[in-house]
Amino acid sequence: MLTERQLSILKAIVDDYVTNAEPVGSRTISKRSDMSFSPATIRNEMSDLEEMGFLEKPHSSAGRIPSQKGYRYYVDHLLSPAQLSVNDMQDIRSQLAVKFHESEQIIQHSAKILSQLTSYTSIVLGPEVFESKLKQIQMIPISKDKAVCIVVTDSGHVENQTVQFPESVEAADVEKVVNILNEKLQGVPIYQLQSRLSQEIASVLKQHVNRYETMYSVLRDVFAEQKQEKVYYGGKTNILSQPEFHDVKRVRAILNLFEEDSLMSRQIRTDNTGLTIRIGEENDFKPFDDLSLVTATYTLGGKYIGTLGILGPTRMEYPRVISLLDHFSKDMSKLLNRSSD
Amino acid sequence: MLTERQLSILKAIVDDYVTNAEPVGSRTISKRSDMSFSPATIRNEMSDLEEMGFLEKPHSSAGRIPSQKGYRYYVDHLLSPAQLSVNDMQDIRSQLAVKFHESEQIIQHSAKILSQLTSYTSIVLGPEVFESKLKQIQMIPISKDKAVCIVVTDSGHVENQTVQFPESVEAADVEKVVNILNEKLQGVPIYQLQSRLSQEIASVLKQHVNRYETMYSVLRDVFAEQKQEKVYYGGKTNILSQPEFHDVKRVRAILNLFEEDSLMSRQIRTDNTGLTIRIGEENDFKPFDDLSLVTATYTLGGKYIGTLGILGPTRMEYPRVISLLDHFSKDMSKLLNRSSD
DNA sequence: GTTAGCACTCTGATATACCGAGTGCTAAAT
DNA sequence: ATTTAGCACTCGGTATATCAGAGTGCTAAC
């Protein structure tokens, strides 16, 4: 169990290190106005804190820096109640006040806002197309043997794909197929489309349509494409301004990661709604071993839609990021709800 | 006028510097098998070449490196006829052989291939949506007051946007409007949509449709969105492996540039079709002052569609990049032509 | 329990010497 | 008249030594 004084020292060290990115020494802490002990006393306490695993020394005659455990304790027990500046709140509000034509745009823009506000990198997961339901399918011919197949979901999301038919397929048949699909598949979740196609629709098509196999394989391809989920980034390079990224090789590694959407999305996703903080190795992902990730979820009608994430050094401004994300995710949920009824 | 010997020395220096990224000295050149003069002789020639502006010295006791003018001369007069390896050609062919559902995918993928093949960064401009013509407009209702507006072009490109109607607008009216639009605007180039809307369509709508102003403003918004052109990147971080990018600040600057699609597209675009090489300051763009950009255009039915660009250090493997781009742009044009008839 | 004092440790900056690669010039060789 | 060997000179980069500053840990005094 930590004493009152140890708590305040730990907090002071984290706060100082977060802003200055340099090991903090006993004198520095002792000089703070809210600290009324001599450096020597502080040193003793620091030594104890180190023994307990909350602090570590880069080398024997430097100051201390928080360990992962130190950050974790700080986040769990010491966080000053978040004080979002009026300025920030107005900023968020006005940024979100711009009118958007698509919820996709809102989400995309939110990544930018978050990165600007925090000067870390933000990673935002869009709604899972996957879970939304089919509204309508259309085939629009654009040349003799080609058409654009458009899939619209109930959330207003649109996927499209150019398909090619052998000459032998007749326009009338295509139309018939589309009609059947719309009749049978409306309201079906996107992720079920494929299995439904093969189970129910295949046989129906067989009965009513010429060139059944061709149509079937085209459709299967279209549905196979409908799976990916969107990942948006804001301030990809913000993270480079952190002193821990002065090595170009690290830079490259992390930047390349950012191109791997599916990998990132797996990394960002959380099961529980609400706020999650993962510090360093808690991410369970080597490239993030000295990074922290704070995520919040946003909702529509109380249902999970997507995740907002902030990625920064473990030495992160947790209080600010947390309150920012908390506030922002709520504002965003509100906005989405308003624009969708 | 340069002597035969000076030419071969210049060529040797460029070739050497391109591969080793280090100033090359007289001894190094003299040792080459195709060079039969002593270092001293080479030194004299180098000194002359420097005086003429083709070479420069990083400092008095280093070797020489090519100046911008040196590279330019090399590119214009000394390039060994491009020798694309069979390996590369096969690589290109097999990579392009994957079947794509959309020409957009081909283009996107081509950026990846080019960056892999060159280990520089590739920047590819997609077809100008702008120039293609309207095929069809659709409104698909997804809730009481919302609909997805879908714009399909003759090139198979699809843009979509969620729009919101006041409750008072009736479904029948929306349908009527869509019919009018399709009748009047089919075949109209995208960039003309806005003006045609205000000139011809506005009055027609006024006559036939209730709530004319609302519909009009919604449509205006939709058409206003149809302007951007797509920029694809491959190997954004490849450029970081160049020794000239060991400074994180430069890295950030260039990487941030890559996020500014419209800026980049302006920078990459060329008027003339065919191959263009811009070396360093020839780019007329400060951030590219020590980079070279090689571009080629690809076509459909002989008409300009887009641009393939390779961005690397001025110390670039010009012969390889040039022949690669030349070959690739032709292959790609062929592919597009084949898949679009 | 707290703190002053002091020896000790380690980093980072600065100065110095030195090696190697390369040049430019002169004089000899071809 | 070229070409080349020889040599003094220049400069960057590395290695080494030195030093100041910041910090710790311990002991002894308060």
TrEMBL record, chains A, B:
RNA-binding is among the record's keywords: no
Heat-inducible transcription repressor HrcA C-terminal domain mapped to chain residues: 104-322
SUPFAM superfamilies in the record: GAF domain-like, Winged helix' DNA-binding domain
Transport among keywords: no
Limits of the Winged helix-turn-helix transcription repressor HrcA DNA-binding domain: 1-72
GO molecular function: DNA binding
Keyword terms, alphabetized: Repressor, Stress response, Transcription, Transcription regulation
Pfam families on file: HrcA, WHD_HrcA
InterPro entries with a match to the protein in the record: GAF-like_dom_sf, HrcA, HrcA_C, WH-like_DNA-bd_sf, WH_DNA-bd_sf, WHTH_HrcA_DNA-bd, WHTH_transcript_rep_HrcA_IDD
Family per record: Belongs to the HrcA family.
Task performed by this protein: Negative regulator of class I heat shock genes (grpE-dnaK-dnaJ and groELS operons). Prevents heat-shock induction of these operons.
Protein's UniProt name: Heat-inducible transcription repressor HrcA
Organism the protein comes from: Alkalicoccus luteus
